[in-house]
Amino acid sequence: MKKLIYLQFLLLSSISAMSQSLVCNYNVKVDSTYLKEKNINVHEIFYTYTKYLDKLSYKLTIKDGESHYAVNPDFKKGLDENLVKVVQSVGGRGVYYFDKSNDKLLNQKFFFGEIYLIEQEKPTWNYTNQTKVIDGIMCFKAFSLKKIDNGKRQFTKTTIAWYAPSLPYSFGPMNFIGLPGLIIELQENEAVLYLDKIEFLNSDVKINAPTEGIRMTDSQYEKHLIENGEIFLKNQIFKN
After folding, report:
1. Is the dihedral of CA 209, 62, 71, 186 positive or negative?
2. How many helices (H) and strands (E) does the chain have?
3. Are the beta carbons of 141 and 135 closer than 8 angstroms?
4. How far is CA 108 from CA 22, 63, 76, 85, 211, in A?
5. What is the per-residue pLDDT across 107-119, written as a single tens digit (0 to 9) for each?
6. Is 157 helix (H, G, I), strand (E, B) or coil?
């Protein structure tokens, strides 16, 4: 994100703080330093699709206390559907919606022939005193830990966020919300989502909550995948 964009943001915020409708564009990159430090051999499939990451971007739309996050639809043009699914998993699949007024956090996604509407819990953040300057913006580090059970093994996934208290928006990519400032950079393993641009909208943007799909909690959805994963793969992937 350019410093000019940031200065423009501060100017507009001083005039009408928290009343602006804005779109945040997030791009994706790979942290090779992380891979070297962890002595990780990247999966062949990740290398296969790395070249497409330059085209992959996500849009986070914010208005008052609501947000909508999804992949930029332009990314899907001309690409194989299965390829889109694999690459898109880096920064989140489907639509993520949050309404601060009722603390509702939803993820609507299409998976193996069904649409799911998943009620997610907000992440629990651990705050640190670590700071770094990203494109002229002072950011603070926070991290979230989540226990994962994929049916074969249990492990803890760490997500690192760099947020800017000077940008008073408690939103970010996917379901990572609730920090005292906009998330500028988000990292899960080697995948990094970084804020590239902020666009201010003069029109009255309306954010609609997703309503279609089989309703489940996050834990119910994970259990559903574990119990039916092999059936999904057999019926949807290998039949062709």
Report:
1. negative
2. 5, 12
3. no
4. 22, 19, 18, 14, 8
5. 999 877 889 999 9
6. strand
